[in-house]
Amino acid sequence: MRRVLVAAVVIAASPRAHAQRQPGWELRVPERVEVAAGGTATVAIAIAVDRGLVVSRDAPVIVDLAPDAALSVKKRRLGRGDAVDPEADAPRFAVAVRAPDAAAEPGEHAVAVRIRLWVCGGKVCKPLDEHRKVTVVVGR
Q1: What is the pTM for the complete model shown?
Q2: Which of 4, 24, 68, 139 is surrounded by the most beta carbons within 10 Å?
Q3: 3-state DSSP call for residue 131?
Q4: Which of 13-17, 29-33, 93-97, 122-126 has the lowest mean pLDDT?
Q5: For residue 52, what are the CA distances in angstroms to 37, 48, 57, 86?
Q6: DSSP label at 140?
Q7: What distance in Å separates the CA atoms of residue 1 and residue 83, rounded to the nearest whole number?
Q8: What is the distance, to the nearest Å, from the Cα of residue 113 to the centroid of all Cα atoms in its chain?
């Protein structure tokens, strides 16, 4: 019985068990950014995929931004063409967020981020629809 248990542990810890892990992706969006009143902060949004995966070039990449009324962004909807490098396998975006003017009260404001895209590997693609929130801390 003990040999069977040891064999099961060895099989579970073998490299083959780890090779069965599904490759994945990650959406990198900061939780907080700081900006002086009347200034502009850059919110970096990056899509990272494991080796062997790409963000589909045949399907759109859509980034929707919904800032609080006190904040402003140049465009509320971004696409692959707005990426820092539109031809990259995993696009990244640099979004300029403008804080209220210097006369406004400092505080925390939010920018809701929604990203829709397709991640592909081999012959299979999977749709992703992710939501994040960035807190913009406005100081004096």
Answers
A1: 0.77
A2: 68
A3: strand
A4: 13-17
A5: 43, 12, 15, 19
A6: -
A7: 58
A8: 9
